[in-house]
Structures are given as C-alpha cells and as structure tokens.
Amino acid sequence: MRPFRKPLQLSYRDRTLRFTPEGVRFFFITLGVGLAALNTGNNLLYMVLAMMLSLIVVSGILSEQSVRKISLSRSIPQNIFAGTPFLVEMKLTNHKRFAPSFSIKIEDVGVGDAILGSHYLMKIPARQTTTVIYPCEFPMRGPHAFTGFRLSTRYPFGFFIKVREIRAEKDVLVYPRILSGLFERTGRPLDGTTRLPPMKKANEGDFRGLRDYRPGDDFRRIHWRSSAKPSGLVVREFETGQSDRFMVILDRSSPHEPGQAQPGIFETAVSIAATMILNLDRQGFQTRLLTQGNAIALGQGVDHVLSAFRILSLIQPDGLTGQEGWKRLGAVPGGHASAVFISARSDSRPGIPESWTWIPVADIHRSFGQTR
Amino acid sequence: MRSRLLFLFRLSYHLLVLAGLLSQALTGILNPMVLTLGFGALAFSFFYQGLALSRGVGNAAALVALLFGALDYFILSRDLIIAAAHLLILMQAVKLFNLKHGRDYYQLYGLSFFGLISAAGLTSGLSFVFCFLFYLLMLTWTLILHHFNEEAYGADPTSEARWHASGAPLISPRFLITVSLVALFSFFMTLAFFYSIPRIGFGYLRSRHDRRSISGFSKTIDLGLFGPVDLDSTVVMRVELPQGRDALVMPQIHWRGMAFDYYNGQSWESRPTFRRLAPSGRDRFFQIHETKDINGVVEQIFFVEPLDIDVAFSIPGMVSLSGDFRYLKTNPMGTVEFPLLATRLTRWTYRVSSAITLTPDGRERHMIGLPGEDERDFSLQLPEDCERLRRLAQEITQNVDGDFQKTEVLETYLKRHYAYSLEVKRDPGFSPVDDFLFHQKEGYCEHFATAMALMVRALGIPARLISGFLGGEWNEFGKYYLLRQQDAHTWVEAYFPEMGWVTFDPTPARVEPKPLFPVVRGLFYCIDALRLRWNRYVINYRLSDQIRMVRMAQRRTIRLTDAGSDLLGVLQRSYHRWSQTTGLWPKILFYLAATGAGTGVLIAILKKWKRLKKSAPAADRPPIAVGFYRKMLKMMKAKGLSRPNGLTPLEFAQSVIRTRGPAYRGVMDITHLYNRRRFGREPISAPEMAHIHSILEDLKRLP
After folding, report:
1. Contact state of A39 with B201 under an 8 Å Cβ cutoff
2. What is the largest CA-CA distance in chain A?
3. pTM over 0.80
C-alpha cells in the first residue's frame, strides 16, 4: 500500500493544490471556529469564520492568478556531454494585461519527476518576459528528456502551494563523457608494451585547394589571406592518404563475462571511443567507427563526429562473450594507417591483428576513476 | 531593499497584534493592568528591536503567565473567556520578545487571532467591527510580507542580488496598493460568506458578558419606595417604522408595555393570568388581537438592547407580533411577555403591528381587553381607605358632564396643580397616594398616574395603569426612534364604551436636560444609526433574515424575468409592425446590415480567440513519430505492466524482462529502435518496421 504522505492535496487537470503545514493548522482552526460559531450562535464568531474562509478563497484566487497566463520556453545547447555542466535558459512571459505574477518558483522537470533545475522569482510584471538561467548536468550518456515545467507558488499567505504543470517535452541525446587529458595521461606505456597511437599526423598530404570553413575545422588550416575577403573564412584542404585514416573499434561484448565485469567499465570504453574520435578529428584524421552491429563510414568534420557520438550515446553492451562477441564485428574494412581496438574486457590482448592498438580499458577506467 | 521589507514586516505584525489587543480592550471587561502590560510589551518590542529573551527566560515567563491564568480562572475573574483572554495577552507579550524562527511568528499571529476570537465572545458592540476591519487589513499585510520575507530570504541569502538582477522591485507604492486591494477583496469575500453561511446554530453556549441590568423600567410599580431617581440616558431600544421612513405625526407616542389593574395601597400588580400563545407559519407570527381596521395598522420593528426586560412594547393597540420566539405569553389587558430564555441572551428584535386610532383631540385609543372580559376584572378596584381621594375626584368633576370629560378634567387638574420632581419626600403616616395628593404635591410619573387611575376609578370609570416609554428621539440619519432609559414612563388608560381604552397622561412635562450642540447631536445620531445597522445586520442576523433575503432575491429574479419577457414582446411587436409597413429595399438593407454586424462580431471573436491561442504557452510535443513504442506501452499496460514516470524506456524494458522472463525480449528490441529513432534521429528502415510489427504481434500473444 502506498504510504499516505500528502494528506491534503487536491488535483484538477494541470493544477494541484497542496496544503502547507501552516495551511493545515489554519484549516483546522477554521473548523474549530466554525464549530464554536454553530454552538454559540454568536454572529461575531460567524464573522471571524467568514474572514477565515475568505482568506482561503482569496488565497486560491491569487495563487491561480499568479500561475495563470504564463508561458515558458527553454533553450539548451545543441551538444550535451555526460558529466559536463551546461546552461539552460528559461524564458517566462507573463501574458496578463495588468496583473503581475508574484512569488513564482519555476522547476524544470525531467523524466521521473526529476527536478533538473529551479529558480525563484519575486515578481513577473504584467506583459513582460523574464529570463532565468540555471546550470544543468546529465551524468549519463544516452537519451534524456525534459518533460515540462512546474510553476508553483505559496503566494499570498503561505497556506497552500498551487502547482501548475506545463508540458514542454524536449528530447536530448547526451553524448558520452569526453575524457579530457586522456592522451596526456595514457601516452605512456599502459601495460609496459602498449602505447596509444600517435595523435599527431606526421605530415600532411599535397595541397588540394581551398574550401569554405566548416565548424570543427582546424584553425591552423585557415587560409587567412583568402579569408580577408568578405565571403568569410576559407580553409586549405590537403590530399589525404592512408596515413590519415584511423579506425576506432569498440567492442561491445565483454562486460557480462562472469567474474570479469566491472561496474561502469563499458561506459569508460564508450567515453574513450568518443574522446578518440573527437581528438583524431581535431587533428585532421579521417575516422571510422566500428562496433558489433553498427558502423559509420570513413569521414571527417563536425557532422561526422556527431553521427559517431549519436551511435556511441545509444550503444549498449550486447551480452555476448569471448570469440562470439568478436565474430559479430564481421569483416573489418582495410586501408587504415591505424586501428584502435577498445575493449572493456580486462583479459589479455585478444586475437586481433598485430597492427591494431589494443587499449585495455580497465587500466584507463582505474586511472580515471569510475566513469558512469 | 531587504531592510525596507523587514521594516514593513515588523510594522505590520506589530499592528496586527495591536488590532487584536484593541479588540480585547474595547470590550471593556478585561483587567486594565493586564491590558496595560500587553500594550506596553507591544510598544517596547517595536521600539527596542534588539531585546530578545533567552530560551530559559522565555519558558519561565510563559510558565508564570500560565500560573496567572489558572489563578485568574479560579480566584480573580472566575470566568473562562476572560481568564483565557488575559492569558492570551500575557503569552503574546512573552512571544513578542521570543521571535526567532518562522514558526514563532505564526504562533504570535495565532495568539493575536485567538485574542480577536475572545473579544468576539465578550462583546457585541460596534467597536468590534472597526477592530475587525483593522485586523483583517493587518492580517493580509502581515501574511503576505511574511511570505515574501521567508521565500526570498529564508533559504537563500543571495536572492537579494538575484532580485535586483531581475529588475522587478517588489516594495513599491504599487505593491502596497495591491496588498491593500487584496485586503479589501478579502473583506468583501468575508461579507459574502458572513451573509451566506446558514445560521443553523444551536446557541447552547451563548455569551452573556455584554448583558446589563439597568434600573428604570420594572414589572412592578411600588409607590412605597422613595428617594431620588436618577435620569439614565442609556439607550434601551430603537424602533424603526418600516412602512414610512418619517416620524409619526402624533403629539407624543406612548410605547405601551405592561398594564396593571390591581392596586393594593402600596404597589400595582397585574392580576389577569397569562396564557401561552403559539406562533403560526415559518415567520413565527403571533396573532395577539383581531382587528378589522387594516388601514390604521402601523408596523414597528424593535431592536432591544440586552437588558432585563422581557415585555413587548408597541404603540397602543398591538394586534400581532413576529419574531424568533417559540411562544409568547399574553394576558387580556394586552400585555405581551417573551419567554425568559429568549431575552436573556443578547440583543433581540421583533416586529409588531398596532391598530392605531386617535380620539379627536389626538389621544391614542384601542379596544384590547375590554372590562369584564376577564373573570377577575379589577379595572374598578380601589384600595381601602381612599375616601379622601374619592371626595377630591368628585369635587374636581362636580360641574362636568360625561365620563370622558370628567377624566380629561382630572388629567388637567393633576398637570396644573402638582409639580414634577425626581426627589420625592415621603410621609409614612399617609398612604403613598394621599401623601402625594394632599401633602407633598410633587412626584414623578408613577405618582401622577396612580393618583389619576384611582380618581377615575372612584368616579366609576374603568381605568388601569400602563408602564412603557414615552416619546423618544427621532434619529434623522437612521430614521428611527431612539428610546433611552430615562424615557421610561407610566400613564393611565381609561375605558369609555364608545371609544374603548383611551390614553391619559397626567404627568406634567419635566424639565428636559440642556440639548447638545447640533454638531455633537448629529454625530451622536450618526454613530447611533451605525450601531443600529450593526445590531440589525450583524448581531441579530438570523436564519429568518436569510430566508427573507432568499425570497427577496427570488422575487427580484421573477421581476427581472418578467421585464425581460416584456421587452422581448415589445421588440417582437415592433418588428412585426415594421415588417408589415416597410418596403422591400429597406428590409433587404436591414438584413444585410444585421448580417454584416453579426459577421463582424464573429470575426472579432475568432480573431481574439486566435490571438489568445497564439499567446498561450505551447507545449513542445515530440517531433518524431514513435507510434510503435506507444502501441507497445499500451499493450504492456493491458498486461498489467505500466511504465511509471520514474523509469526511462531502457529501465522499463529491463524491468519487463526481469519480471516476465526472456519471452519479453522483444520489448528491449523495440526500445532500442525507439531510442535510436527518437533520440538518435535515425530513420527506421522498412525491414526494421516489419520486424517491429512481428515483435508486436508476438507480444500480443504472450500472456
């Protein structure tokens, strides 16, 4: 049986009226005065009772007045990474012609009634918009959602909390956590034999031409002389060879191996993959992501990285173990200078080609702490 | 900003406590020492803000207050409400120096509120309404400011900066006006509730604190007493004349109360037995006496102060009475008494009708209680040893013919030859009447009336003594008669077969006290008119008034509906006439204009509606169609597996598999595709869609 936690609460459509402790006391005193008035027939007691009832009604009317005709909108950044705080901007507009709204608490609500952020406003003047900003953070990658707003007020007397729910769904795909300093920290031998591949291109190919700047392009490639023209920034483009191609292979198979699973280790694997793709792309490499059941073609640039992030955001361990798991990778395309094999398994180097770099995630996981 | 809010808050809660204290002080019943302590603590707390009691001292002071309360109840006042009111004042004084947390403030408001309630139990005076209005205003103020103080600064000390940043200063003249308007609105709501809450009270525990016992009018008239009589200007009742708003055109109104028929030589008594009279109808209407003369009936509404009088008054000739009484007691002489309990409580009111007729010379007369109607008729009774009085009466009237004329002569004789005095001397060697008539030759109304009644009886004319009130002041502001204790009076009714009982008043006019300045008198009447309204519409507001109001509303509604129907009928007839007499083109033009106007109104409404819809907050709906997931959720729900709000889709899928087994693995597959579609924005291919459908079919078949 559900515990009886909210004894005095009334709900109707998107409004909820809840008694505060002071409100409960006031309500019971009102009942007492009502009984006394009935018993004595004293009209002055009836007058006091009428005052108390009127305060209850006025409280309801004014609290409703405070939360009605207010619209809200929310602005969030385009790309959100797990464990990285970002700012959410909420715009509140009071559409009432004359009446201001007093004492409003705004809560941004996520899935499962989670309060993602809140703010208190003393007053929103009539026909005015107020902007408030709050910091938000999703600790886990994957799909998240803002489900709506909750406006609440205890105005005017603090006897009741009037809550208005406003549905405003917004889906958010939170990208994997980017492990800053991953390369600095892991550039040294991890197990005495393995090193991360060099993250700086040895040299660039032949100059191919100029093209418009796209977000994510390396600033060092900007051709400043051409960019001085009014058309905007222009970057130099070079021929890419095999040495510029990098394949990131993420193994989904390991964590459920009995006795070998470490909590959050798969998440660290995903974060390593995302961090590598981002950094390689920034260095000018073309990258390819390969996992069991999913792959993206070789590519470069913001769109390419984001599509890799989308896959990495939703990826889940597949539950297969050992050779079965690796078999699901299928035919591995060739033509890459380097390939990194990221596996959450903590056993010895699996049977992968010698040219591939095996990254034992368990060590990095330990090094970075548990990454959720 | 905060200091201004805090100052206003402090000011408002001190004023709130002041309002409560004033309401208690103005009852006039509470101990002045306790009240002084309460007011002093309030002033001290306001002007010396820093002073605060430590916890121990505060508790000790509260304990002392409690002990005093017990002492007060058992020894000093011996009254529960008074002792409670004293205790509330003392506890309030302690609490004023012990305000540390939000709950302390609420306790202070509670104490002052209960103080107001105690005042409501102790008084029914007009002063309460002013205190009540003040209290309501300050309560609204205090609660709102308390709320802002707590919300803005209670939890977050940085909120002031945020407040400034929001650019919406709160404490401004506009805000103060807004809060006052809230109080005004609360007041109107209070009125609405006050008049609509059904008065189904039982009245078992009515207060008797404002009940006074004052001298002047009594149910026995004893001439054996002597000594100075004080003129008491206390208001005892007010009389409205609902039919006409102006004063009656009469020389002097005698507000008839009790009739006395038996004089034992020292005092008058009323001998006829009283019988109980039951009311008829829901209005509690009592028929006192039958009358055929409907034109001469004057209605009067009496508002009686809480006094020890249980007699009904009226202009002579009371025929009916209505009021909130279960029964009445009447006797053949036209005296009406109320049940004892009904008048022992508080202010009360009743409505009477009198069949008023005047003799040619302007005397009141009536036909109630004719001589001989009662078996024990004493209207000609005389005490022993009144030969001297009889001789005097015969001597005065020896040259006069006719009973009426003789009675008039006796009245005039007493008026001319005897003086009015409130300081009566008494010679115990004579009977009171003889002493007045032959020795002192001065007295007040009771002496004159007794002497005349006995002399009239000595001439063989039935007569009786009447006590009541004479005249009264006509309040021009409130349009009612104001009767004071000093207006209590005694006079004579003599019976003549052709006229009935006629009023004779042998008392010479007394020297009236010096009148007040017109401005002061006007102010007094104004306040008194307010007091009457207060008593009538607040203190004496009863279920019967509510029923009357509902009936009035019903009548008005019916009248309004009738007026609407009449208007519609007029419009219909006008249109009919117009359509018969007007040519085709004007008609077409009229219809076009009417259609145009109608369309215009419709467009305006639509535009307004569209504008409203546009300005309404738009909920962001998920932009991507994921109907298959909703379908699966619906299916799961039918199987008793609802997705709670707290679970993400993946968590839900895992919980389904955990509880129902691997057969439900399809839920996880659909969830992955749903996540990919909704959050990854990737399209679902045709084979994937077919796969989804097959999973859904499989799930449908599962138990």
Report:
1. yes
2. 102
3. no
CB-CB under 8 Å, B207 with A158: no
Euclidean distance between CA atoms A289 and A247, whole angstroms: 6
Q: In whole angstroms, what is the distance from residue B423 CA to residue B229 CA?
A: 7
Partner residue facing A45 (CB), from B120, B621, B624? B120
Burial class (CB in 10 A: 0-12, 13-18, 19+), B569: exposed
Q: State how far the alpha carbon of B48 is from the alpha carbons of B39, B52, B54, B97, in Å.
A: 14, 9, 16, 10
pLDDT (tens digit per residue) in B250-285:
768 899 999 998 998 888 988 877 888 888 876 688
**Six-digit token pair at B633?**
């959720």
User: What is the C-alpha radius of gyration for chain B, rounded to an integer number of angstroms?
Assistant: 40
85-124 of A, contacting B, C-beta below 8 A: 95, 100, 102-103, 111-113, 120-124
Question: Nearest to residue B199, comparing CAs of A183, A49, A285, A336?
Answer: A49
Cβ contacts (< 8 Å) between B197 and chain A: which residues?
Answer: 37, 46, 49-50, 53
Contact A170 B680 (CB under 8 A): no
**Would you list the DSSP string of B309-330?**
--B--BSS-EEEEEES-S-EEE
Q: CA–CA separation, B492 vs A102, rounded Å?
A: 73
In chain A, alpha helices (H): 21-40, 43-67, 182-186, 224-227, 265-283, 302-314, 322-327, 361-368
The distance of A354 to chain B (nearest Cα, Å) reads 34
Kind and range of the H or E run holding B182: helix B173-196
The per-residue pLDDT for range A324-348, each reduced to its tens digit, is: 666 666 666 666 667 888 887 655 6
ipTM > 0.85 for the complex = no
* Residue B299, both tokens: 């209605």
Contact of A2 with chain B, judged by CB distance below 8 Å, is answered with no
Which chain A residues contact residue B189 at CB under 8 A?
50, 53-54, 57-58
Chain A: give the shortest CA distance to residue B342, in Å: 13
Selected for mutation to probe chain B from A47, A80, A104, A294 (highest B CB count within 10 Å) is: A47
A350 touches chain B (CB under 8 A): no
Q: Do the Cβ atoms of A42 and B120 come within 8 Å?
A: yes
**Which of B132, B151, B620 has its CB closest to that of A169?**
B620
How far is CA B547 from each of CA B279, B366, B550, rounded to the nearest angstrom? 17, 34, 5
How many Å apart are CA B463 and CA B160, to the nearest integer? 87
The strand order across the sheet containing A338-343 reads A294-299, A286-291, A245-251, A338-343, A356-360
Burial class (CB in 10 A: 0-12, 13-18, 19+), A70: buried
Secondary structure class of B490 (helix, strand, coil): strand
Model confidence band, residue B148 (pLDDT cutoffs 50, 70, 90)? confident
What pLDDT is recorded for position A185? 53
Interface contacts (A, B; CB < 8 Å): 207
Which of A219, A231, A193 has the alpha carbon at shortest distance from A363? A193
CB-CB neighbours of A9 under 10 Å:
13
- What is the pLDDT averaged over residues A348-363? 73
Phi-psi region of B362 (alpha: psi -120 to 50; beta: other; left: phi over 0): left
Residue of chain A minimizing CA distance to B201: A38
Asked if B615 and A169 come within 8 Å (Cβ–Cβ), the reply is: no
pLDDT digits (tens, 9 = 90+) for A126-176: 999 999 989 999 988 988 889 899 999 998 998 999 999 998 888 889 999
Asked if the Cβ–Cβ distance from B156 to A70 is below 8 Å, we say no
Residues 20-59 of A with CB under 8 A from B: 22, 25, 29, 33, 36-51, 53-55, 57-58
Output b/e per residue, B83-96; b: 16+ Cβ within 10 A: bbbbbbbbbbbbbb
Digit-coded pLDDT (tens) for A28-53 = 999 999 998 888 888 899 999 999 99
